[in-house]
Design goal:
Blueprint lengths: L1 H19 L18 H18 L9 E3 L10 H4 L24 E11 L4 E10 L1 H15 L7 H10 L44 E3 L7 E3 H7 L5 H6 L11 H4 L5 H7 L5 H37 L9 E2 L21 E3 L6 E2 L1 H9 L9 E2 L24 E2 L2 H9 L24 E4 L5 H15 L25 E3 L10 E3 L10 H10 L4 E3 L13 H8 L12 E6 L4 E6 H10 L11 E6 L5 H4 L1 H10 L3 H4 L24 E5 L12 E5 L4 E10 L5 H21 L29 E7 L5 H10 L28 H11 L4 E6 L3 E4 L5 E5 L2 E9 L5 H12 L14 H22 L1
Parallel strand pairs: 6-11
Antiparallel strand pairs: 1-3, 2-3, 4-5, 7-8, 7-11, 9-10, 12-13, 14-23, 15-16, 15-17, 17-18, 18-25, 19-24, 20-23, 20-25, 21-22, 21-24
Length: 896
């Protein structure tokens, strides 16, 4: 029952918010609802009362009063709108009986009609009271003489013309004569008056409006301009309205699909010369990996030839019959299979070539036992330093001992044959695994030969610029403006990061970017949003875009699951309530800031389906589209997969989180230390600072003292924890000068790839000093980076530098900054303010080696680990990327 009440409450909030979205709309008393038993009598009394009231206001008996079930306007329209003809709209009036109305006060009857409300996608029943024919004739002639709007003498024309006046401005068509259209010349002395309806709120009573001089059709009222477009002046609206600038954030425009002409306008296109240059680059980068794949497959074919006693040329490999829209995984290590593998003919158990090699060597790594961790909730009071509930905690249980025992007994035959594994491991324990292919017999071998021939013909060589130093390090020549100091490592030349501005990027900057990218360095591009149309990323605009009307195919995203950064548990919350906390902040009963975050949201579907306009705005903002375009980026290997194949989810995805400028030490709004298997670009689109009151700050300091006491008791039993006093070693945050800058939103720590082993060693040594689920101390670690259970505070970063000499690149991401994170670089993020970030994954040729290395690390994780499954399929991407480069080389060279 509690969930039912919460759901109903959410629906009620949704209706209230829809009502509030009309600027300045005031709630009014609804007219008395008509009941069936006395509907006729009560309706007649109500109508007479309204008619008497209308006489006082100047309405004549022959004028029409329209009653609608759903409100379109509040109050009577002005004389300018209808040329002296007044209409009254009554809110939410329902009529059950109309028998007596037909006989009352000179009305002939009731016209029933249905009109479409495009704003909500519903059809509304309209009840139109029709006066006597004489009165209708008189009113028709009166309107015709004043404005020349009627072209006939029948009462049907009057109803049709009046119905047109209720249409939305969105529904106007070119060439259609409407009372809400713009001024235009007509035949004779006829003239259609200019409307003052606001395009944003669809109201004409919100005060002064500004008309766009570019389209001469759209108008915006003063309240809407201030509320929804605070960065635009009235002069900006007069020169070019948001509709003409493609950044209108009204409800209808937010839900519009991106037009085909706009997609073509932003589509990345490459010349034949560029395709040749990029194809050469891809071949030089990927050919070594293709040779390695070919070597592994030839080795397995030689073993198969030895087993069957045939020459390798006579070996016939069977087709696995894997459909293009299917993804095949190894049933032992959960790694994706690109081509050759072994499969059981009885139960279809599939085994990758890496596992085949390990089984023959007697060192199978991919079948580690499952580990299920169970945590006991110590209670709410425990989160802030009090004693836990007297409940016996549940120990960690290993559920895979039998599985590991079976894995130890699973061995290959002396001749190299591999039997199907025992049933405990998912096999049938019968039969021999047979060699099969997916792409085609000798597909990789033939492709490798073709690529090698091209490399020899065009003298391609492997690009290696890691030891080269680009021009931006020549600080005396003025290159310092494009550099950001992000570390203080002694004797290192990579303390500065490439830091260009989006508006200053030129076509030649791609080579500069590649110089830093090859070295595995992050790149930060400033103010990328300045290159877009300026669509608003305000939270309430995002909320309006998230909400879906009922007749759309998309889900209504009213309730979401957020993560509480204090106990790392999910909480269900209404979207509107979440965004309210984003702007105003939320505190728990003890006064501690409640920091929530949404990850990979919207769920259940792609970002492009739910937010087409924002998705287009984000993709348009990304620099270096050769890498970042998810549809046509020539150097993005994820694009090379066939169209009908099952592709990995590369984004875009939104990351929306609350923030707090002060490092709390417990419950911080953070993304914990992790390492992405692919490259990524992250854009900070919106920030908002919630300033705590002095009373809240006082409560926070009191609770922090309780937290420290609890840490001393629980965490530091083996080794007393003290804050590091650095002797001759600089702090990791000494170079951060803009930590509290007005446009700074997130603090990033990105570690170098070569420092990952030392980082893991430090975390294994100090893992019991960190907390995770239910704010409990960590009890065990499988992989310190891939577990995503650690966040290094400033004290831990200083201690890491003192013990191991490891320091990350640390910098503050400002609004509009795009951060490029290379694959294989461990990183963590803390939100200094409420932030909306949008991220996109891509696979660059330079980092294929890191993607493959991480895939091998994931193979060694426990079977049910969160990072176990390989969803990237980087080997398959590499094969198809080389195939496309060879194809483009041949086609373009033939033309040139």
């Amino acid at each position: 029952m509690m969930k039912l009440r919460e759901r109903k409450g959410c629906e009620r909030d949704e209706r209230d918010c829809e009502r509030d979205e009309r600027d300045g709309e005031r709630k009014r008393e609804r007219p008395r609802k008509v009941h069936e038993r006395d509907g006729g009598k009560e309706w007649a009394v109500y109508k007479r009362r309204e008619m008497k009231k209308s006489v006082k206001e100047g309405l004549r008996d022959d004028e029409v009063v329209v009653y609608k079930r759903r409100k379109v306007r509040d109050g009577p329209l002005s004389d300018d709108d209808l040329g002296g003809k007044k209409m009254r709209y009554i809110k939410d009036l329902e009529m059950e009986s109309s028998a007596q109305v037909e006989k009352e006060d000179g009305f002939d009857g009731i016209e029933r009609d249905v009109e479409r409300d495009d704003q909500v996608g519903k059809e509304n029943k309209v009840l139109r009271l029709v006066p006597k024919r004489a009165a209708m004739k008189k009113a028709e002639i009166l309107i015709k003489s004043c404005h020349g709007l009627l072209d006939g003498t029948g009462s049907r024309n009057l109803g049709t013309k009046l119905k047109r006046t209720t249409e939305r401005d969105h529904g106007e068509k070119e060439g259609k004569r409407s009372l809400r259209g713009k001024n235009k010349e007509v035949q004779g002395n006829e003239k259609v008056l200019k409307s003052n309806m606001c395009h944003q709120c669809q109201r004409n009573d919100s005060g002064r409006v500004v008309e766009c001089s570019a389209c001469e059709q759209k108008r915006y009222c003063e309240p809407c301009m201030k509320k929804w477009y605070p960065k635009m002046t009235e002069e900006d609206f007069a020169i070019k309205c948001p509709v003409c600038q493609f950044n209108c954030n009204c409800k209808r425009c937010l839900r519009l699909e991106v037009l085909v002409k706009d997609r073509e306008r932003f589509k990345v296109k490459f010349s034949p010369e560029e395709k040749i240059r990029y194809s050469r680059y891809i071949l030089s980068m990927l050919l070594p990996f293709l040779k390695q794949f070919n070597k592994e497959q030839l080795m397995e074919k030689r073993i198969e030839a030895k087993i069957k006693g045939l020459p390798i040329s006579k070996i016939e490999v069977q087709n696995a019959n894997c459909k293009p829209d299917e993804r095949m995984f190894c049933d032992n290590c959960r790694t994706s299979i690109a081509d050759l593998h072994r499969s059981c003919p009885n139960c279809n158990y599939d085994l990758c070539l890496s596992c085949c090699s390990e089984i023959r060597d007697g060192c199978l790594q991919g079948s580690k036992e499952k580990v299920s961790m169970q945590f006991t909730d110590p209670g709410k009071d425990y989160l802030h330093g009090k004693k836990p509930h007297p409940l016996q905690s549940l120990p960690a249980k290993n559920s895979g001992r039998g599985h590991q025992k079976s894995a130890d007994e699973w061995k290959s035959h002396e001749n190299g044959n591999i039997p199907c594994p025992p049933k405990e491991m998912g096999g049938c324990d019968q039969g021999i695994l047979e060699l099969r292919f997916i792409l085609g017999d000798n597909y990789v071998h033939d492709l490798c030969k073709e690529a090698e021939n091209l490399a020899k013909t065009h003298k391609l060589h492997v690009c290696n610029t890691q030891d080269q130093q680009c021009s931006c390090f020549n600080i005396s020549a003025g290159g310092k403006k494009n550099l950001l100091k992000a570390a203080c490592r002694e004797g290192s030349d990579d303390n500065f990061l490439y830091f260009p501005t989006a508006l200053d990027l030129r076509p030649g900057e791609l080579g500069h970017f590649q110089c830093h990218w090859l070295k595995g360095e992050p790149v930060i591009v400033r103010n990328v949003l300045a290159t877009t149309c300026g669509l608003s990323w305000e939270p309430m605009v995002m909320w309006r875009a998230f909400r879906q009307i009922r007749n759309r195919k998309h889900d209504q995203l009213l309730d979401v699951a957020a993560i509480n950064c204090l106990d790392w548990c999910e909480v269900d919350i209404n979207v509107h309530h979440f965004f309210s906390g984003y702007l105003n902040g939320i505190y728990d009963s003890d006064g501690w800031p409640k920091l929530l975050k949404l990850k990979d949201w919207p769920p259940s579907s792609t970002f492009e389906e739910h937010l087409p306009r924002h998705c287009g705005e984000f993709l348009n903002s990304l620099p270096f589209k050769e890498y970042t375009d998810p549809h046509a980026g020539y150097l993005n290997l994820a694009v090379k997969l066939p169209k009908d194949s099952l592709k990995p989810d590369m984004g875009p995805k939104t990351y929306i989180a609350y923030g707090f400028s002060q490092e709390l030490g417990r419950g911080d709004s953070v993304t914990k230390l992790h390492c992405d298997i692919s490259d990524a670009v992250n854009v900070l689109t919106h920030i908002y600072e919630v300033t705590p009151s002095s009373d809240n700050l006082s409560k926070i300091e009191t609770l922090k003292q309780l937290h420290d006491s609890q840490d001393q008791t629980e965490i530091c039993e083996n080794e007393k924890k003290t804050k590091m006093k650095m002797n001759g070693v600089g702090s990791c945050s000494d170079h951060i000068q803009d930590m509290k800058c007005s446009d700074g939103g997130a603090l990033w720590d990105i570690f170098r790839r070569q420092d990952a082993p030392k980082l893991k060693e430090y975390l294994r040594k100090h893992f019991n000093e960190f907390r995770h689920i239910y704010c409990l101390p960590l009890e065990q670690v499988f992989d310190p980076i891939h577990d995503q259970t650690f966040y290094l505070t400033i004290e831990h970063k200083n201690q890491l530098k003192a013990e191991y000499g490891v320091e990350p690149w640390t910098f503050v991401q400002k609004q509009g900054d795009a951060v490029f994170i290379p694959a294989g670089c461990p990183h963590q993020v803390r939100n200094l303010k409420s932030c909306i970030k949008v991220a996109l994954d891509f696979v660059s040729p330079e980092n294929v080696n890191e993607c493959i290395r991480l895939t091998e690390e994931f193979r060694a994780l426990p079977e049910n680990h969160r990072s176990k499954e390989d969803k990237l399929e980087v080997k398959k991407m590499t094969i198809y990327a080389v195939k496309q480069a060879v194809k483009d080389f041949a086609e373009i060279e033939g033309v040139i």
